[in-house]
Amino acid sequence: MPSPFPGMDPYLETPELWPLFQDAFAACLSDTLRSLPGQYDVRVGYRLYHSELEHREPYIEILRRSDQGLITLLDVATPSNKTTAAGRDAYRSRRQQAKAAGANHVEIDLVLQGQPLLDYSRDGLPAWDYAVTVERVSHPQRYEIYTATLARRLPRFRLPLEAAERDSVLDLNAIFERSYDQAEFGKRIDYANPPAILHDRIAVAAYYLWQQEGCPHGRDKEHWAKAVESLWRPSQPK
Question: For the chain, which domains are there?
Answer without folding.
Answer: 10-188 (3.90.1570), 196-235 (no CATH)
